[in-house]
């Protein structure tokens, strides 16, 4: 049966929809009126809010449904959480700066240049102003003294007098004039491009006067930071800006005034200010515009500086657990044994056996008598008792050493147990399980600035000369790169004697590059000797001229320094070396910096570059004829083919001096056999 559709009248619906105000009198309502949804939601939330307010007024419910009274007014409501559970407040900008500076590494060695302006009012006190920078420093490379051009002669005279009486252990001092700039602050900033280092310390005419010792220590040993750091800073860039007061934390500044230290590249490109007196605020604005935090510089904080610079047990044990710290207290070293700040130097000796330490005792005793602290670790034998022993030499010198034990079983454990971070670690170049960890251990904090010296066991009995070096000289042990340069032609017997003496030389663990320069006329026997040479101390480079040049270009073109730490020992083939010749050269290099001569001499990069420049001008005859006598009454004036003639001219014109070893009976570290050659005839 088919379904029939229900008949529904649509007229009333449509009429109501179209005319909502008209309603049929006989029709009842189709449905009951309803609350609107929006009204219901508002009422519901109102009820919930009123109920929550009433409940909160009397008590705070806990998760466990336990009820506690409401805290009295004036006491912070913590919802019954312990202090340890409260979220930490975000660190302030000052705290973030202090943390960043504390965690930043120190700048590299020889990477700081100091710029000091001299004006007429401060010339008389130049010696006092310059004194804090005439020091032996791993960081300081050069002190650049700048002065107005009319003051140049007097400044040079004052520096010459001052440096003649200064200790030989100090950084290079240079003097540069400035022209046209009336403001010495402008001249300081303009001198930054002369800096050859990554970091620059800018001073005013007063240097470090009225600067705290702690600030001086930081400025001469700064951290590698991307913003300037100094002692004096201002709050903003306006003309009425005030000086920031010193606080316990590092604090940001709109700009700094000298003294302050910054990256040399950061100080370049500062746009000129509208007035010379605004030079430092212009620098601060320039720095701030390159940073998201808009900091123009940072002022040193007193407490934070002490935390950074102190040389304490806390710094050594930073990051160690309580168990590790407790372990480091065993066997003789405790916090109360810590060396005082400013101790003259700490040496750590790590040898496998007692015999190695005995062979090195001549050095130990010399260093010990000069006040250096000596600690020794013998790791070749396990001693379960871990008892300190004494080693005595003939003169009654005593040094404490400790055996490897269950408590101190590794080189790292022993270093961590010392009362202070060592300045120098000395060990053998012999590779074993323990010595293989030397370098890895010293590549972590707090040992990043510790120098590692590795010596061959066979060289220990001949190392007494090392005891004459100062701490700073020993810390520079690994800096020089020495090349042995041999010049030869057609004297194979002489070359064989020289090469044999070189191979018998003690090099004290240094890698030595051997560079052999053969003339175009070298005979087959000479070439065979060079080809069969076996060299275990470094790389070998052989040069063979295709056009005969003679002795002068053979020597002058045999080597050229690639950096300021590059040195060369020039050897003609009629020279024979003593086994201790390298010891003398290394000691003189670390201590005296310059030993110019021609027979088995060590040449320094700055002087050899200078000699190249002088020789180019001299041979071009632009300055004066080649026949001109420069040094009167010198035998070498008759040596027309001698390079030494021109080197003596340079030494004479520059006022340089020569340093020679002086032993009884004319004993020396090299012997010239005066064989037939360019200067010796049959």
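-> sequence recovered:
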């Amino acid at each position: 049966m088919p379904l029939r559709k229900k008949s529904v009248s649509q007229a009333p619906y449509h009429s109501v929809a179209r005319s909502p105000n008209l309603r049929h009198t006989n029709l009842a309502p189709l449905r009951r009126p309803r609350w609107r949804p929006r009204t219901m939601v508002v009422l519901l939330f109102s009820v919930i809010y009123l109920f929550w307010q009433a409940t909160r007024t009397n008590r705070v419910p806990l998760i466990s449904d336990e009820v506690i009274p409401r805290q009295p007014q004036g006491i912070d409501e913590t919802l019954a959480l312990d202090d340890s559970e409260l979220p930490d407040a975000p660190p302030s900008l000052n705290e973030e700066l202090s943390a960043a500076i504390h965690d930043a590494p120190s700048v590299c060695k020889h990477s700081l240049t100091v710029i000091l302006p001299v004006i007429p009012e401060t010339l008389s006190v130049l010696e006092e102003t310059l004194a804090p920078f005439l020091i032996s420093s791993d960081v300081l490379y050069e002190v650049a003294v700048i002065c107005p051009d009319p003051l140049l002669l007097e400044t040079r005279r004052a520096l010459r007098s001052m440096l003649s009486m200064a200790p030989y252990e100090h950084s290079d001092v240079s003097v540069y004039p400035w022209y046209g700039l009336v403001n010495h602050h402008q001249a300081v900033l303009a001198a930054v491009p002369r800096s050859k280092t990554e970091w620059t310390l800018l001073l005013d005419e007063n240097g470090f006067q009225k600067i705290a010792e702690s600030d001086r220590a930081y400025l001469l040993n700064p951290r590698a930071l991307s913003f300037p750091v100094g002692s004096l800073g201002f709050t903003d860039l306006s003309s009425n800006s005030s000086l920031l007061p010193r606080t316990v934390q590092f604090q940001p500044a709109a700009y700094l005034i000298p003294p302050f230290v910054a990256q040399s590249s950061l100080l370049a490109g500062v746009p000129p200010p509208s007035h010379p007196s605004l030079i430092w605020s212009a620098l601060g604005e320039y720095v701030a515009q390159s940073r998201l935090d808009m900091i123009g510089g940072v002022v040193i904080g007193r407490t934070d500086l002490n935390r950074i610079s102190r040389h304490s047990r806390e710094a050594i044990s930073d990051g160690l657990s309580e168990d590790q710290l407790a372990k480091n207290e065993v066997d003789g070293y405790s916090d109360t044994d810590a060396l005082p700040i400013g101790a003259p130097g700490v040496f750590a000796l790590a040898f496998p056996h007692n015999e190695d330490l005995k062979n090195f005792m001549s050095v130990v005793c010399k260093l010990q008598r000069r006040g250096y602290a000596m600690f020794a670790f013998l790791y070749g034998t396990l001693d379960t008792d871990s008892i300190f022993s004494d080693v005595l030499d003939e003169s009654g010198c005593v040094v404490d050493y400790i055996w490897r034990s269950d408590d101190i079983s590794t080189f790292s454990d022993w270093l961590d147990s010392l009362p202070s971070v060592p300045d120098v670690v000395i060990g053998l170049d012999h590779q074993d399980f323990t010595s293989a960890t030397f370098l890895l251990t010293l590549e972590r904090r707090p040992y990043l600035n510790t120098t590692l010296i590795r010596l061959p066991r066979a060289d220990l009995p001949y190392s007494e000369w090392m005891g004459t070096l100062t701490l700073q000289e020993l810390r520079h042990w690994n800096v020089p790169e020495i090349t042995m340069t041999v010049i030869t032609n057609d004297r194979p017997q002489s070359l064989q004697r020289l090469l044999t003496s070189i191979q018998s030389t003690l090099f004290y663990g240094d890698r030595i590059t051997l560079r052999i320069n053969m003339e175009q006329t070298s005979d087959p026997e000479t070439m065979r000797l060079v080809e069969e040479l076996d060299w275990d101390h470094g790389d070998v480079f052989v040069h063979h001229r295709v056009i005969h040049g003679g002795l002068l270009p053979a020597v002058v073109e045999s080597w050229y320094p690639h950096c300021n730490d590059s040195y060369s020992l020039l050897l003609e083939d009629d020279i024979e070396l003593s086994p201790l010749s390298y010891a003398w050269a290394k000691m003189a290099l670390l201590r005296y910096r310059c030993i110019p001569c021609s027979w088995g001499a060590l040449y320094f990069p700055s002087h050899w570059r200078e000699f190249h420049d002088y020789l180019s001008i001299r041979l071009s005859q632009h300055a004066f004829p080649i026949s001109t006598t420069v040094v009167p009454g010198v035998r070498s004036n008759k040596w027309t083919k001698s390079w030494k003639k021109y080197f003596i001219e340079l030494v004479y014109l520059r006022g340089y001096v020569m340093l020679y070893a002086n032993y009884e009976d004319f004993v020396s570290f090299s012997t010239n056999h005066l064989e037939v050659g360019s200067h010796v005839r049959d």
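The radius of gyration is 39 Å.
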